[in-house]
Design a protein that fits this description.
The chain is of the alpha+beta class. It has one domain: YlxR-like (Hypothetical Cytosolic Protein, Chain: A, 2-Layer Sandwich). It is built from three helices and five strands; from the N terminus they run E-E-E-E-E-H-H-H. The strands form two sheets. The chain has a three-stranded antiparallel sheet, with helices on one face. A hairpin with a 2-residue loop joins strand 3 and strand 4. 19% of the residues are buried.
Amino acid sequence: MFTPKKIPERMCVVCRQMKPKKELLRIVNSPDGVTIDLTGKLNGRGVYICKCKECVSRALKGKGFVKQNGFSLDAVAEQLEKIIEQ
């Protein structure tokens, strides 16, 4: 019989909602610095954020993101805003 393929889900670190992996952005903290992982295959500590303006703005504004994850999004703030606008 046909078994449906399982869709991987991840949790947004800002709004704490479980969503399919393709609906989220992965941000990686690697030894090279903080980058946005569009392929989902970069090495390093990765966290997921929803592709919505509210979650991105909350992550950029508050200090809770830095305390929770151990790195800041200042280096990729402009890239995040461009991706959200598309």
